[in-house]
Design goal:
The structure holds 2 protein chains of 2 kinds.
Chain A (H helix, E strand, L loop, with lengths): L1 H12 L4 H13 L1 H38 L13 H62 L9 E8 L3 E4 L1 H4 L4 E6 L3 E11 L4 E6 L24 E6 L6 E9 L9 E4 L11 E4 L4 E8 L7 E5 H10 L22 H8 L3 E7 L2
Antiparallel strand pairs in A: 1-2, 1-12, 2-5, 3-4, 3-12, 4-5, 6-7, 6-9, 7-8, 8-11, 9-10, 10-11
Chain B lengths: L1 H22 L3 H20 L5 H20 L9 H19 L7 H4 L5 H25 L3 H10 L4 H8 L4 H26 L1
Helix pairs in contact in B: 1-2, 2-3, 2-4, 3-4, 3-6, 4-6, 6-9, 7-9, 8-9
The chains are: A alpha+beta, B mainly alpha.
Chain lengths: 356, 196
Amino acid sequence: MIAEQDLLDRYAKGTLAASEAAALEARMQQDKEFKERVEKHLALVKALKFYGERSAVLKTLDEAHREIEMPVKTLPLDTPTGWKRYWMTAVAASVALISILGTLFMTRSLDTKQTAIYKELGRKVEQIRKSQKLMMEDMAEVKEKPNPRPESFAGTGFLISSGGYVATSYHVIRESDSVIIENAKFGALKASVIFSDPANDVSILKIEKRPDEMAQPLPFTLSKVEASLAEDVYTLGYPREDIVFGEGSVSALTGFKQNPNAYQVSVPVNPGNSGGPLLNTRGDLVGVISGLQTETLGAAFAIKSTVLVDVINQVSVDSASLPLVLPKQNAFKNSSRVQQVKRWQDFVFVVKVYKN
Amino acid sequence: MYKTNLTHYVAYYFDELIVSEIRKKNEGALRELYKTHYPMIVNLVCTNSGSEQEAKDIYQEAIMAFYDRAQQADFILTCKIKTYLYAVCRRLWLKRLHAKKRFHGSIEETESFLGVDQEVASAEEKEKQFDSMEDALNKLGEPCRSIIEDFYIHDLSMETIREKFGYTNADNAKNQKYKCLQRLKKLFFDGYKEIE
């Protein structure tokens, strides 16, 4: 069998002599088993050859792959000896030192910058504080102005007679040279003071040239009875260029320092409201706004209409001029407040006072 | 225009040169070919849920297929080597993904490269043959493996083998080789059948 394998090896390698090969092939024709053995042997040898070639190629490919990956040749670092080692340590130490010092320096410089900003800010805050203080002082001054007798060049007045008579506060027209009254409907009208009651802070003005539209009877009356406590009241006035409505109720039946001729009312009033009418829900006049108490919040005072009527009765009217006839009938007692105000605003004037 | 033409021709001549050198079994040419197109396949595999190791495996398989194809006497280069390698690798990778149940599409529908089916099939057949022989040789153990390899693959004479392995006479060596081959025959054909 060894001899047969040897023969087959030589046959596979093609080193067999021509006569021997012919004999072998002839035997293969006759002996099926032998033929099978030969073929198996040849297949095995072929497979081995194939394997050999292929593994050689694969080896080449693996080499190429290693070249791609390019293993970085890491050169072994010589461990520094002697002074070299200390020199490197020194370098490392100085680098560390420089970075620490650098960081410290930078942070400190940052610190100073921040302090500078803070100082500036502080000054600003100081300035703001100063200006705030100034503003507070200004406001305090303003607050002191609306005392019970505000010295204002402008106030409010209202018509009390279709004859062209207007009631206002005495302190509004005090020491006046000329008085001009003005509102949206009648425009600016010159008026003259015909009567003043400084004690009750009431003055009566007369429009010098009454417009004809004013001739019709007034729709409200001047209440001859005192208002009740907690009664709803409202006012119209000119604390600024436009007419302003304000409402509240009767807080007390006496005025400043238990003045029996005035009410305390919780109606928001400002300088300029002085001389304005205080009206009840029917639209009747119950008082004349005169001032407010600075220390108490929401405490305004109004002269009672009964006092006003008394004052009017004292007025001696020149017989040549139009009579001072008080309105007798309330024409809008059942109207809503909005409707009342719509009518009433025509009879309320801003009183402009010109002084020397 | 001139430049593109030049590169085109350079690429064309490169391919021609590679094929002719590979046919001469020039290892250097094979290495160059391997290095030239490897990044493309790494990109293909790694961007399609594969690893670099898997890329290496299928790339080597494709290069082997091309190498085998180039050895055939009737081989003609009908497309760029790059195209061939890409198509084969793509097909191989899709098959691997399919086996891993990570690709559910139909492989046949995704392939437009004519003949790649046959290429892959023959490459796989050869791979299988190679693997079974490697398996058999591994099982054979030493010194049989070396004797067989030396005699049948490296074509060493029995006298050289006798000296190398220290047999006292030629008959002992022949006897050893006979036993080894008989065992390999059994291992190889049995294993091959198992695979089939």
